[in-house]
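RECORD TYPE: inverse folding
INPUT: structure tokens
STRUCTURE:
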């Protein structure tokens, strides 16, 4: 759980800094066109910070961390965000500076999204398994309460025969 919290915190810091970077760079170069720098800030805060804070809450409820499956999710997800946002930052910076951006960076950004998707698939696989276990445990608990030891079938808790 702790590494998820720390990662969310780092994304918050980098997300805020990336917004400042976008604003100051475009202002310094009097740039008014479209650039991918405009959405790096949003990607880092939404996918990075908010996404991991949601995972942190789900981890508290469903005990996701501490498993190999969670570790795979965590590293794929973070690698995907990092590759995607780094590619977008480079591409956006080059656009503001007026430089041509090699097509390779579109492929790198696409690869980052694919890795991110693999991480999300791993998360939902683990979460689905844990939710099923949780629901099964609740149903077993209800069934066990319905037939308390020493209670004859057809009687209520007060001992009266139900009819």
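DESIGNED SEQUENCE:
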């Amino acid at each position: 759980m702790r590494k998820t919290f720390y990662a969310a915190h780092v994304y918050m810091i980098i997300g805020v800094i990336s917004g400042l970077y976008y604003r100051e760079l475009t202002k310094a170069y009097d740039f008014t066109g479209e650039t991918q720098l405009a959405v790096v800030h949003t990607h880092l805060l939404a996918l990075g910070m908010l996404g991991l804070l949601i995972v942190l809450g789900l981890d508290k409820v469903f005990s996701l961390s501490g498993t190999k499956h969670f570790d795979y999710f965590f590293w794929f997800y973070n690698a995907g965000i990092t590759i995607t946002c780094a590619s977008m930052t480079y591409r956006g910076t080059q656009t503001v500076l007026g430089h041509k951006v090699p097509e390779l960076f579109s492929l790198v950004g696409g690869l980052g999204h694919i890795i991110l998707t693999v991480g999300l698939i791993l998360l939902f696989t683990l979460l689905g398994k844990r939710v099923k276990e949780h629901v099964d445990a609740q149903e077993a608990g209800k069934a066990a309460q319905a037939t308390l030891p020493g209670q004859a079938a057809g009687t209520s808790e007060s001992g009266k025969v139900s009819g």
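NOTES: The chain has a mean pLDDT of 91.
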